[in-house]
């Protein structure tokens, strides 16, 4: 089951389902129908049933889904049952904001180390996270068994920093820089280009108003 191959679009919806199931569980709800879920997470119920079907028959007709079962299943699939340490590279404005952001509250992810080349901040603790010099990156990532990094360096150095990360064995990069970095196919990149997202939103609002174009 852990190795079930699921479509990328489905994988991207899992954290949304997970968050809502958490909410239901906290509210003491024991079961939920795909229609209720659909209303809450704004994904149509057929898509939800199809998404869930990739993991086998998790729901029962006329009963819906058992909230705790589903939650336990997602926790496992999304590796929420263990704490994942990640590192942040580039403690500028965006880097600082992400250090301050409490990932740990919503899921078991924690930034446990940050890296920079600016000696004004290396050797300090920012928002509870130690900032190391890039020279210590390999050692720290190895010791702390960190395989995932958040990249918030300036775009002109993003590729050279990425090459260093690949060299030390990083497996996943959350890329906040506008540069589409190149990595070998053993490394996974998720791009979060805030400026681009905002411009896309402005474009769609301008062209289509508020009608939601991204269902399904
Ligand atoms: P932003 O809002 O994008 O974070 P900023 O103006 O605060 O912008 P940038 O110039 O984008 O800062 O740099 C972000 C951080 O990346 C800075 O703290 C900078 O010292 C750091 N940095 C620059 N080059 C490197 C590098 N090669 N390796 C690691 N960190 C770097």
Automatic annotation (TrEMBL):
UniProt: NAD(+) binding residues: 90-95
GO molecular function, one term: DNA-binding transcription factor activity
Biological process annotations from GO: negative regulation of DNA-templated transcription; response to redox state
CoA-binding domain sequence ranges: 79-180
Keywords: Cytoplasm, DNA-binding, NAD, Repressor, Transcription, Transcription regulation
Pfam families membership: CoA_binding, Put_DNA-bind_N
DNA-binding region as annotated in the record: 16-55
InterPro entries linked to this entry: CoA-bd, NAD(P)-bd_dom_sf, Rex_bacilli-type, Rex_DNA-bd_C_dom, Tscrpt_rep_Rex, WH-like_DNA-bd_sf, WH_DNA-bd_sf
Compartment(s): Cytoplasm
Cellular component, GO annotation: cytoplasm
Similarity comment: Belongs to the transcriptional regulatory Rex family.
Assembly behavior: Homodimer.
Its job: Modulates transcription in response to changes in cellular NADH/NAD(+) redox state.
HAMAP family given in the database record: Rex
UniProt name for this protein: Redox-sensing transcriptional repressor Rex
Gene assigned in the entry: rex
């Amino acid at each position: 089951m852990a190795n079930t191959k699921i479509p990328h679009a489905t994988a991207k919806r899992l954290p949304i389902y997970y968050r809502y199931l958490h909410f239901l569980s906290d509210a003491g709800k024991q079961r939920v129908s795909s229609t209720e879920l659909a209303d809450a997470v704004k994904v149509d119920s057929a898509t939800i049933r199809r998404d869930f079907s990739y993991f086998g028959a998790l729901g029962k007709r006329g009963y819906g889904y058992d909230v705790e079962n589903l939650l336990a299943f997602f926790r496992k699939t999304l590796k929420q049952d263990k704490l994942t340490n990640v590192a942040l590279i580039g403690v500028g404005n965006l880097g600082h904001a992400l250090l301050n952001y409490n990932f740990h509250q919503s899921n078991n992810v924690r930034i446990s180390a940050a890296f920079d080349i600016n000696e004004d901040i290396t050797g300090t603790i920012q928002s509870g996270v130690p900032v190391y010099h890039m020279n210590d990156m390999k050692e720290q990532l190895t010791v702390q068994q960190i395989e995932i990094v958040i990249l918030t360096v300036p775009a002109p150095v993003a590729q050279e920093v990425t090459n260093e990360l690949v060299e030390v064995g990083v497996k996943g990069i959350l890329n906040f820089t506008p540069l589409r970095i190149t990595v070998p196919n053993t490394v996974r990149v998720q791009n979060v280009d805030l400026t681009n997202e905002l411009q896309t939103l402005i474009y769609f609002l301008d062209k289509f108003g508020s009608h939601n174009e991204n269902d399904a």
